[in-house]
Amino acid sequence: MAKREIEEINAGSMADIAFLLLIFFLVTTTMDKDQAYIRNIPKKVEVSKPVDVEKRNILAIKANNQNQLMVRDMIFEDPNKISDFVLEFYKTNEKKNDPTNNFPMYSRISMSAIDQNIAAIEAEIEQMEEAGMKADIVNFKYNQLDEWEKKKRALKLYGDNELPEIHVQANIRIEVQQATAYSIFAKMQSEIEEAIFELRNGECERLFGMPYSVLKRRFDQDKKAEDQAMMDLLEILYPARIIEVTPKK
Amino acid sequence: MSKFKKDGSRPMPGVNTSSLPDIVFMLLFFFMVATTSKENDPTVKVESPVGTKTTELTPYKQRSEVDFLYLGEPRNPMRAADFKMGYALSLDNVVQPTVDGLYTTNAVAQWKKDKFDQKPSRMTAPIEAVITCFKADRNAPSGLIFDIRKELQDINALTIAYAVRDNGNI
Predict the structure, then answer these.
(1) What residues in chain A have per-residue pLDDT under 50?
(2) Which of A43, A70, A142, B153 sits in a 20 to 30 Å window from A120, CA-based?
(3) ipTM of the predicted structure?
């Protein structure tokens, strides 16, 4: 019998199969990424009386059921102006405190003051541990100690004699009503984020000579300690303390 | 000078399609790599508002540290009247009966707890750190978001995210 030639496999339908797969993936997948603002809900605690906050330390951004906007009792139309108000809130007293205006004060802390505080808290922790206090309270003190250590690192990085800090109670409040459209709520978040980004970006360029977005991306990828210190410094200079007030029924 | 002489007698050669599968496979692989699979198609209509300077959720998604809940008008217009202000909450494609009943049924808290229990064992994040992402329609009332927030606060699921569409940051 003659040797039979092995026939070649017909690959003509390969393209059809690949097309089929391609179309399947086109239909079941999406290009857009999920983008969002990450926020924290405060932990539930029983408080007998809320702490009084000075009026100058509050930046209340409000919207009512008709989606009308108000910042610090001033009604305005254009939601794009919210970021300007936020910038004003942070920047007014940044260089020089002026008690006559209605914006949060800045404090300046020196290295020796930070060291004193660290020493004081360390002594306190030692005492507490000897006395066998509850773990919650001791942990709270440890957190405080961490904060101060962070400030110490930040000031070293800042390179100045004193570290400017906005008042601890300075906060931005988002107050909406039941029927306020989500788009307005999201716009407020967006504007606040934009203002804080601008502030941090300015300081990042001045101190480290690079845009904040670059620093942030690098930190997200590598999680290096030096980037962490830079991010901490910028967060201490311009903290984002946002309070979302639950609307009344 | 008859360089472009028409030669009617020669037949047109067929286009060689042997590289067609390669091209299509290339496209296929591109799409497989560049896209992500769709989260389930929600039973409510959601058109996100726009925003800037957002955080990307992809790394959290890869670690399955984010759950999505949808808030929008139901796709079936006949049902809209059943819901508070016409907006319905969709949890994993199940539309909750009414948002009014949220507190009595604890639907959100129950859903979130179940989700957390079903997470793969390699996930170590505590429930406080697992993001609950609101995908709300641009016209959805904010009051509903705060109702849901309250329920999440009760079970200590303290990290949330507000989804928006970010055009400048891709």
Answers:
(1) none
(2) A43
(3) 0.79
